[in-house]
Design goal:
- The protein is of the alpha/beta class.
- The chain has a domain of about 210 residues: NAD(P)-binding Rossmann-like Domain (Rossmann fold), CATH 3.40.50.720.
- The protein is built from eleven helices and 13 strands.
- Strand 2, helix 2 and strand 3 form a beta-alpha-beta unit.
- It starts with 5 loop residues before the first strand and ends with a helix.
Length: about 350
């Protein structure tokens, strides 16, 4: 990698995008440009990145579905690689508003790929999801697990997105790409200075847990307690957001250093350990030393029963492993919630 290399990060003021920028600025000499339309994030994120890293991020508030405005950014900067996070991501909302998800998530990706080809940006990392696996019979899942019918429009946009990128790379042999299927990102930067901060009400478990504990929400509803799992609640593979950020950097270095054997690769990112919703709640209660106000409610449309990862491939190829466990995830998330309330 060259110290003059500039990486475009779409969705850079979002949860995972911002933590990836922090790790990139802290551990590499790469320059970063962010595009985000702030549909579910705030410009204040860039100030937090600067506070943690001491570096200012060039950013543009642009909707990637507007190809003309997006192209203006490609004209201004010479990019070496793209990490594409920008997408709507709420499973429940995607069930209620499928066209919103199909339009945004697919159009934005196609625009980015067309501009990558036009401006010869050869290295692409795609933010995929374990949701592509749906309800599978055999756990843990690995990259060769056949993908079933998606359980939600959101998940289907990730399946479609992967296929679009694979076909794009097959048709344009210079292009190389990696799709990272990550499991359930949680936690915050270990300083507690940056974390999940959606504009819309969060649909993910951990920010709802910390929000209830902080008095922002009256109670947490556990969606479903009659699943065929060890305690009746859904099982997920929770992974610290900083570990995910690090994986994106390793994947980018993998491509830039020409270590890939094919022009398109897929990797799972997970701990390999399934944690139930109730187990996650108990971890938080232990870390925060308080009882959480929660009730057991009905199942939620689009949720899968259980999914966790076999991550041997990403360890073997990229040398990536998880550094943080569930207690550290909860501890950092609670630090962030406390910091926000003080701010």
């Amino acid at each position: 990698m060259d110290s003059n290399d500039t990486i475009l990060i779409t969705g850079g003021s979002g949860y995972i995008g911002s933590h990836t920028i922090i790790e990139m600025l802290a551990s590499t000499s790469l320059e970063v440009v962010s595009i985000d339309n702030q549909s579910n994030s705030s410009l204040a994120t860039y100030s937090r990145i600067e506070e943690i890293t001491g570096k200012k991020v060039i950013s543009y508030s642009i909707d990637l579905c507007d190809k003309s405005k997006t192209e203006d950014i490609f004209k201004k900067h010479k990019f070496t690689g793209i990490i594409h996070f920008a997408a709507y991501k709420a499973v429940g909302e995607s069930v209620e508003q499928p066209l919103k998800y199909y339009h945004n998530n697919i159009t934005s990706l196609v625009n980015v790929l067309e501009l990558a080809k036009q401006y010869e940006v050869l290295n692409i990392i795609f933010s995929s999801s374990c949701s592509v696996y749906g309800n599978v019979e055999k756990l843990p899942v690995d990259e060769s697990t056949p993908l079933p019918e998606a359980e939600s429009p959101y998940a289907y946009t990730k399946q479609i997105g992967e296929n679009i990128i694979k076909d794009f790379c097959n048709a344009n042999k210079k292009q190389i790409a990696v799709s990272l299927r990550y499991f359930n990102p949680v936690g915050a930067h270990m300083t507690g200075l940056n974390g999940e901060d959606p504009i819309n009400k969060p649909s993910n478990l951990v920010p709802i847990i910390t929000g209830v504990a902080a008095g922002k929400f009256p109670l947490l509803t556990v969606h479903g307690s009659d699943y065929p799992t060890r305690d009746g609640t859904c099982i997920r593979d929770y992974i610290h957001v900083t570990d995910i950020g690090t994986a994106h950097i390793l994947a980018l270095q993998f491509l830039l250093n020409k270590k890939n054997k094919s022009n398109y690769s897929v990797y799972n990112l997970g701990t390999g350990n399934g944690v139930s919703v109730l187990e996650a709640i108990r971890s938080f209660e232990k870390i925060a030393n308080l009882k959480l106000n929660y009730v057991l409610g009905p199942r939620r449309a689009g949720d899968v029963i259980a999914v966790y990862s076999d991550s041997k491939k990403v360890f073997n190829d990229l040398g990536w492993t998880c550094k943080f466990g569930i207690d550290e995830m909860m501890d950092s998330a609670w630090k962030w919630e406390t910091h926000k309330n003080q701010g």
